[in-house]
Amino acid sequence: MWTRFMDMYSGGGLKEKWSHIYIEAPQNEAKVIFYNRFGHNPERVTCTCCGEDYSIGEHKTLNEATAYERGCAWDREKKCYVEKQDKQSLFHKYITLSEYKEAKDVLIIYKKNIKPEEKEGEVPVQGYVWK
Q: What is the C-alpha to C-alpha distance for residues 71 and 94, in angstroms, rounded to an integer?
C-alpha cells in the first residue's frame, strides 16, 4: 500500500523541497510517518483560501500512485492507468517509473527505510481549522 502526498502550493509555495512525496504505508500510518519525518501535519491548512497543504491518496502500488504525474493513459474499459502516453494530457509526457524516481521534486520513502518509531504517535491539528 502506498500513500501519495501532493503539495497543493497553498500559501504560495512548497512545504518541503518535493512536490510529491510517496510513503509505502496505508494512509493513516503514512500521515503519522509524514508528521514524524517533516514536523508538520500534511492536512494542515496554511492558507484559508487554498485549503489543505497536501492532496492525499492511498494506492495499491507505486506505479498506480505515480501514474497521472508520469503521463500514463487511463483505460476506460479496465478502469485503470496503463503504461503508455496519455494522448489527452496537455501537461505530462509519459515517462517510466524508473525515470520518474529520478525527478528532483519527488521523494519516495520505502517501508524498509521507515524506522519503527516513525510509525508511532499522533498527528496534531495545525494551521487554520475549518469550523
A: 4
